[in-house]
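Customer escalation, tier 2.

The customer says the design service returned an amino acid string that "doesn't look like it belongs to this structure." They asked us to rerun it and document both sides in this ticket. The original structure tokens are below, unchanged.
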């Protein structure tokens, strides 16, 4: 399966899952706080709907789609919760219809992305990450059950993996000659490794890591995205470490690289 097909499939998964979460909210839950500071669940739904609305019909080389977002957001602010949900569903239906027709060539086309220059396909991978995280902003905050594994979760994790060298070198500040291994126990099982040799580099594996962190993939993602205070999962034993005690404690508290 091509990278384009995988990304489109994962977008379909996160669109559907996010919509199901929003569609299951009670009138009271729409106004409850999410994991995004200052945002209620409704604000998260409005934000994702705004972005996807701006991307309807957009192609690389067109005007910056983010410039349309303030006007869209003002329009959505006047909608009832259920009308906002209906708008989300209509917008993602249009997005999926468009994505079903895109080619590998379009996915490889140079494009702006939220993290700088890239390709249209890279932009869409970031959309998978963004929607996956925003669904957890609502579900985790409200204690709602859901599936945190699967291919979309793996693609979301890849966004953190691609920044793992930055996390290790700049956020944790691991010293030269040290190494780290992060073991994720599920629902996405994975191992992230980095070695500092002049600068932090992501590697496939490390022998005798200076620090080994162990946690579940959801907790790791929430920490990496700055969604939760690390003290609670540390106190609850959800984040553990071995090796250098002081460096492990610092690493467990310094995983956030975005918000």
């Amino acid at each position: 399966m091509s990278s384009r097909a995988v990304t489109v499939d994962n977008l379909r998964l996160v669109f559907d899952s996010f919509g199901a979460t929003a569609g299951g909210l009670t009138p009271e839950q729409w106004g409850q706080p999410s994991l995004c500071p200052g945002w209620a669940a409704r604000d998260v739904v409005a934000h994702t709907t705004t972005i996807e609305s701006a991307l309807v019909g957009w192609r690389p080389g067109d005007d910056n789609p983010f410039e349309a977002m303030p006007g869209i957001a003002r329009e959505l602010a006047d909608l009832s919760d259920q009308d906002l949900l209906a708008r989300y569903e209509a917008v993602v239906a249009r997005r999926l219809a468009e994505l079903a027709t895109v080619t590998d060539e379009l996915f490889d086309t140079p494009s702006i992305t939220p993290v700088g220059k890239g390709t249209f396909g890279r932009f869409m991978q970031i959309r998978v990450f963004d929607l996956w995280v925003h669904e957890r902003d609502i579900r985790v905050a409200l204690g709602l059950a859901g599936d945190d594994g699967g291919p979309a979760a793996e693609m979301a994790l890849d966004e953190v993996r691609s920044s793992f060298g930055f996390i290790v070198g700049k956020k944790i500040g691991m010293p030269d000659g040290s190494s780290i291994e992060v073991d994720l126990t599920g629902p996405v099982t994975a191992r992230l490794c980095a070695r500092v040799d002049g600068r932090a580099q992501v590697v496939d594996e490390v022998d005798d890591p200076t620090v080994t962190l162990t946690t579940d993939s959801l907790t790791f993602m929430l920490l990496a995205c700055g969604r939760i205070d690390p003290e609670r999962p540390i106190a609850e034993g959800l984040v553990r470490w071995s090796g250098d005690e002081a460096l492990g404690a610092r690493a467990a508290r310094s995983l956030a690289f975005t918000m």
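Tier 2 assessment: The sequence is consistent with the input. The CA atoms of residues 33 and 40 lie 4 Å apart. Residues 157-252 form a domain with the Nonspecific Lipid-transfer Protein; Chain A fold (CATH 3.30.1050.10). Sent an explanation to the customer and offered a walkthrough call.
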